[in-house]
Amino acid sequence: MSGDGNRVAVVDAGGANLGSVCYALERLGVQPQVVSDAAGLEDADRVILPGVGAAPEAMRRLREQGLVAPLRELQVPLLGICLGMQLLYERSEEGEVECLGLLQGVVHHLPAAPGIRVPHMGWNSLRTMRASPLLDGVADGASAYFVHSYAAPVTADTVAASDHGGLFTAVVQNGRRCGAQFHPERSAGTGARILRNFIEMDF
Q: Is residue 12 part of a domain?
């Protein structure tokens, strides 16, 4: 895969999962380039936006780096991971912050319920909602590793959902805009397959 000419840019938005995402790509034969400004996106064939932490802080950092407009105008495939996926939506209830607006919907706090812990931490199954090349080779019910307190609603863009006190979007795709709420870099074969699909699929 490293010889197919794909330049994969990984945005440094301050998330603690930056290194582990890069390592997961390297295991697939991809040599990612970490970028922190608009110039780093210019020749990218794929862009990955990882993130861990709070939406307001992440958006503030993207604004300071001059990356908000370039990400909104991106013409190549984009994959948001964990908080990075949440930033693709219009707004997050976390700090009532405006996000990138690339996907329709508002990210909400996971509901508390008897027997339901928030944050949602650990393995959970993926429920296929519609066909997408992102899930090629991923069985319905496959498990992925989650760590989050906020989640995106299930919409027409939802590829797979998970249930934690109610359904939420676990995998999303609208054209070139994709996301995984879980951590593919920590989700064994399921996560590796979804990363590989994103790198290799035709958009």
A: yes
